[in-house]
Predict the structure.
Amino acid sequence: MEPTRNTVLARLTEPGIFLKWLLFAAGIGVVVGGVSTAFYYAFHWATHARTLHPALLLLLPVGGMGIVLLYHVCGMERDRGTNFVLVAVRENAPLRLRTAPLVFLSTIITHLVGGSSGREGAILQIGGSISSKIGRWIHLDDKDSRVITMCGMSAAFSALFGTPLTAAIFAMEVVSVGVMYYAAIVPCAIAAIVGLWVAQSFAVPATAFTLSGVPNLSPVSLAQVIGMGVLFALLSILFCWGTHLAGHLYSRFLPNPLARGAAGGALVLALTALVWLWAPFTFDYNGAGEAVIAAAIEGHARPEAFLLKILFTAVTLGAGFKGGEIVPVFFTGATFGCTAAPLLGLNPSFGAGLGMVSAFCGVTNCPMTSLLMALELFGEDSAGMLSGQSLCLFAVCIAVSYMLSGYQGLYSEQKIVYSKFRPEFINRKANDEPDRTSTSLTGKDAKP
């Protein structure tokens, strides 16, 4: 059968499309990588300033009100954070350029005064809003606008964490669970790599850890990591439930956003003071807590640390402070894994590593991203490179956490397209009730 005229024309245009995306993705990588680098240094300045001057925590109520006022002045009171970025990719909804400086500044304020949050939520919004606006400036069509938004997400995540494979796949996987946007694989990969190069040229370090006690694959170790996966799934559910519950309680009892910001800051301050009763002048739960994550990877963690971090993060973000949940999830997973692993006969360092990526998978519903994250974060153990069999242990733990965490998630706009338990099209949002009209993959409606 001879190719039609339209088929021939399509094949002739494919090299042009490829070259177009090489150019666009590289440009997004340069721009977003530069902004992400500035964010990294501002973030660490805020963390360092708070460490040197703990009295800044007394400004928590003021910081909460200040962030609320910033969003009010900019007309962004209804901002929904990373959820807006997911909608922008799935539905090509417009993202305002003002989102980037606004979330940049408000996240720095959050960390300067000691709120418990991460940095990835901010950087995804920054990268997504900048790239989305660039796409509209150069008049990209509906489909290409979605791809360039994913490029911005990839470049920002890669520049900040130094994990380009994780960043590229995360942008493609997080929007619709069960559906990968493979058309974006070249643009996202190029944007992530260029963003990483830009960050590295300004000495932004990659996030990486060295694990110890990684076992070989055996029936015993397989059973152990399956058990850990079950625990991490429950931990993921608890984290999502806690963060969402805090938001609902704030809205119900403190409908005024200014009062909510002030009360949330005061609550974080009070929680910090309570922690001092058994650990005087401990600020482990304020800010992102990266030092605690590093200590857990070395095999040291307080048994109550994961619960306190969930509480601090829920109280902070529910009140309107900005940042993200992913680094707190790393904290929670690492400290819990470090504590629980010895109970199942595993090394605490290995348990902390499992916890970081498996809890991440449970709250984001992104198993492929989580496996690549394990490879990029823990590519070397104390004996050298992780073996393929050792990586299998991570894969099994991640898979169990993904399956048993159910349909909870950090992002309410994330679409769960296919069931986790059977080949069935369900098409529901995370945290929503299931759609009773779902059909199997063999049915007529089995499509995203």
User: Anything to note?
Assistant: The chain has 16 helices and six strands. The longest strand covers residues 424-429. The radius of gyration is 22 Å.
